[in-house]
Amino acid sequence: MKTNIATVVRFVPFVFLILTFDASSQNRIQLAVMEFKNSGGINKDEVAILTNRFRGILVNTERFEVVEREQMENVLKEQNFSLSDNCSQECAVQVGQLLGVKQMIGGTIGKLGQTWTIDLRMIDVGTGKILQNMSRDYKGEIDGLLDVMKSIAAKFSGMDEKTVATEKSGAVSLSLSQWEILGGTWYEKDGAIFGSGGHLIYKEPMADYVLEITVEKLSGPAWAAMAVCTRSTVFLGGTKIFRNNTSDLQGYGFNFTSDGRYNLYSSVNGGVYLINPSWKECQKSDMLNSSINSIRIEVIKDNVVIVANGKQIASFTDGTHGYGAPCLWVQEPSQIVRFSNFKITIK
Fold first, then answer.
1. Which 3 state secondary structure label does DSSP give 112?
2. Closest to 15 in 3D by CA, of 175, 225, 205
């Protein structure tokens, strides 16, 4: 893990974890994507990026509830299941059974001469049969494979390729109907959302995106923190503090206070970790205002850049969380924080 910032905040951060399948997506097919096998002519990092982007495109079809890479790895590790480089169709079915999904997608990607070749198959976990098999050849720069991924995702989802989004942008409503309250008190008024003492998570997970939001602290002690979080996911279980007292969160969090302190956290499996383990005290920054702050967080591949009031305040590189939803957090019930001007640009 790399970082180019040098500070921290002393306060208890948001609690974070995993959701296998969100309650808001009950009609979506539960699916997992195996890491693509490298058939040559492409490096490991490029394969990982393309696999993860394919997951994100599948999510955008709104036909599938896709297990994220980290959750998949954690479940297999807990079950002492070791994936080989030559995981067969039978192996994929076993993985799907352990994950509790209905379908699995796996296959290969590589380059022969000047031609990229992609072969992917969708497998029914219940029957072990191949539901669909997709093969594509492509000549050009590696960036063009994203359009190929979009075409394959459209075929797997039974949609017209033109309706499958790899990018979309614009203001997103701050209506509570598009968010889920995990804890605390939240309400909407005049196009903004007000929160106290808890978490609010956006219902749509995404892979790469830019999040923009205005955060205004209306009341509460100066030391109490707020957070704008990205790639957040929720799972049943954990420390029993959220919905129905059975959920937890994980993802990246930018925590800050009205007296100008901040820190960065990554939460995994219920544990909260400093992005920079050496930080023992919070960072003090004059980029943060005492009442109103405009926050922009870019989460592109493994790179995260945080901008406060038009100036970059922090950045880091980490591959722990592949995709997830924006999440808002207010530390204390005595605080009232107003969130407005919310905008998402999916990359």
1. strand
2. 225
For residues 220 and 226, the answer to whether their CB atoms sit within 8 Å is no
Tens of pLDDT, residues 274-304: 998 887 778 899 999 888 999 999 999 999 9
How far is 191 from 337, CA to CA, in rounded Å?
14
Considering only the C-alpha atoms of the chain, give the largest distance between any 2 of them, rounded to a whole number of Å. Answer: 63
Residue 326, judged by CB atoms within 10 A of its CB (0-12, 13-18, 19+), counts as buried
Q: Which residues pair with 17 in a beta bridge?
A: 233
Name, in order, each residue with C-beta under 8 angstroms of 70's C-beta and a sequence gap of 6 or more.
18, 250, 268, 320, 321, 322
Could you give the CA distance from residue 52 to residue 207 in angstroms, rounded to a whole number? 8
Return the ∠ at Cα 245 (arms to 244 and 250), rounded to 5°. 105
* pLDDT tens-digit map of 28-86: 899 999 989 998 988 887 888 788 878 878 887 878 888 877 778 888 888 888 776 66
Read off the pLDDT of residues 195-249 as tens digits, 9 standing for 90 and up. 999 999 998 888 899 999 999 999 999 899 999 999 999 887 777 788 777 788 8
Cα separation, 315 vs 7, in Å, equals: 12
The pair phi, psi for residue 121, each rounded to 5°, is -135, 145
Please give the Cα distance from 109 to 33 (Å, whole number).
Answer: 14
- Count Cβ atoms within 10 A of the Cβ of residue 341 and give its class: 0-12 exposed, 13-18 middle, 19 or more buried: middle
Q: Is 86 helix (H, G, I), strand (E, B) or coil?
A: coil
Question: Which is it for strands 29-33 and 103-112: parallel, antiparallel or unpaired?
Answer: parallel
Contact status, residue 34 vs residue 287, Cβ threshold 8 Å: no
pTM: 0.55
